[in-house]
Design a protein that fits this description.
The complex is a heterodimer of chains A (121) and B (106).
Chain A (H helix, E strand, L loop, with lengths): L2 E5 L2 E3 L5 E8 L8 E6 L5 E7 L6 E3 L7 E6 L4 E6 L8 E8 L8 E4 L3 E5 L2
Parallel strand pairs in A: 2-11
Antiparallel strand pairs in A: 1-3, 3-8, 4-5, 4-9, 5-6, 7-8, 9-10, 9-11
Chain B lengths: L8 E4 L5 E6 L9 E5 L6 E4 L13 E6 L2 E6 L8 E9 L2 E4 L3 E5 L1
Parallel strand pairs in B: 1-9
Antiparallel strand pairs in B: 2-6, 3-4, 3-7, 5-6, 7-8, 7-9
The chains are: A mainly beta (121), B mainly beta (106).
């Protein structure tokens, strides 16, 4: 069974940092692109960052460019999101999502349960 | 930046057919997918590559994409289909979601 389990969310002050993790199981992790998607309270889905199956290509949304870094450790089946210079508008549920293939421009066929990030003083 | 536009809400009677649209510039030239999200739950992929259903998704869900509009159609709508629906595509290397449509089954 494919499983994605996010962790690392919490309350952080504006300007602070947080590192999210996503533990994957039930599939060959290294063979699939992975993505972070967020959802602010009461709002829609927003694509954040994606990384190819090889890890050689990463892409970030304009709202997080220069502040967030996506990475993966295929030896540990783990996806990460390093979030720096956090702002109130980064407050959201952050979902880890699996792509349908190693290519990053694919639909997301499995999602984790999400981890909550709150940026507030 | 590329934008996808969805109607905020749509309603349907049980057993009827409903369509949810997603509009974007030359969207028909891109692959579009659809996600269903019920309250308090994570999104679920219901259509990918415009018109393909993942395993486990009922046949009543179908999709199309042409010109500037992608469409998700639910035939014989059931009460369990009440949810938010999001379209999504890729513009260059940027993921783009529509604003979402709340489907109410009256």
């Amino acid at each position: 069974e494919v499983k994605l389990l996010e962790s690392g969310g919490g309350l952080v002050q504006p300007g602070g940092s947080l590192r999210l993790s996503c533990a994957a199981s039930g599939f060959i992790f290294s063979s699939y692109a992975m993505t972070w998607v967020r959802q602010a309270p009461g709002k829609g889905l927003e694509w954040v960052s994606s990384i190819s199956g090889s890890g050689g290509r990463t892409y970030n949304g304009d709202s997080v460019k220069g502040r967030f870094t996506i990475s993966r450790d295929d030896s540990k089946n783990t996806l990460s999101l390093q979030m720096n210079s956090l702002r109130a508008e980064d407050t959201a549920v952050y979902y880890c999502a699996k792509g349908r293939s190693s290519k990053e421009k694919e639909a997301f066929d499995m999602w984790g349960q999400g981890t909550v990030v709150t940026v507030s003083s | 930046s590329y934008e996808l536009t969805q109607p905020p809400s749509v309603s349907v009677s049980p057993g009827q057919t409903v369509s949810i649209t997603c509009s974007g510039d030359k969207l028909g030239n891109k692959n579009t997918c659809w996600y269903q999200q019920k309250p308090g739950q994570s999104p679920v992929l219901v259509i990918y590559q415009d018109n393909k259903r993942p395993s486990g998704i009922p046949e009543r869900f179908s999709g199309s994409n042409s010109g500037n509009t992608a469409t998700l159609t639910i035939s014989g709508t059931q009460a369990m289909d009440e949810a938010d629906y999001y379209c999504q595509t890729w513009d260059s290397s940027t993921g783009v979601f529509g604003g979402g449509t709340k489907l109410t089954v009256l």
